[in-house]
Amino acid sequence: MQAEQIQALVESAIADSQAQVQIEGNHVHLRVVSPAFAGQSPVKKQQMVYAVLNDKIATGEIHAVHMQTLTPEEAAQ
Q1: DSSP string covering 12-29
Q2: Which strands, in side-by-side order, build the sheet including 27-33?
Q3: 39-55 as b/e, with b when 16 or more CB fall inside 10 Å?
Q4: Which InterPro entries match (predicted)?
Q5: Tens digit of pLDDT for each residue in 17-68?
Q6: Neighbour count for residue 60 (Cβ, 10 Å)
Q7: DSSP alpha helices (H): ranges in 1-77?
Q8: Looking at per-residue confidence, does 63 or 72 come out higher?
Q9: 66 forms bridges with which residues in the sheet?
Q10: β-bridge pairing 27-33 and 64-70
Q11: What is the pTM for the complete model shown?
């Protein structure tokens, strides 16, 4: 799976998000910034992203995901 495809998938599923994606083999490094994360725990933020990627993980297209999930305010710090 290409970085652009993952970026489009995440950005279309999570409101007003901006995703940065780096791929190393079948490992994905993902940084997602969205106001939708406001007030959410770190676990809830990750669950929101995993919900988008679960089908790709299940098929093996994505093997492992390392993610950073931030609100715009957190990203600005």
Answers
A1: HHSTT-EEEEEEETTEEE
A2: 18-24, 27-33, 64-70
A3: eeeeeebbebbeebbee
A4: BolA, BolA-like_sf
A5: 999 999 998 789 999 999 999 999 999 999 999 999 999 999 988 889 999 9
A6: 8
A7: 3-13, 42-58, 72-76
A8: 72
A9: 29
A10: parallel
A11: 0.92
Q: Which residue has the tokens 């495809």?
A: 5
Structure tokens at 9: 């998938």
Paired tokens of 43: 């676990």
Domains and CATH numbers, the chain: 3-76 (3.30.300.90)
Rg, Å, the chain Cα set = 12
For residue range 4-13, what is the model confidence (pLDDT) as tens digits? 999 999 999 9
State the CB neighbour count (10 A cutoff) for residue 11. Answer: 16
pLDDT at 40 (0 to 100): 97
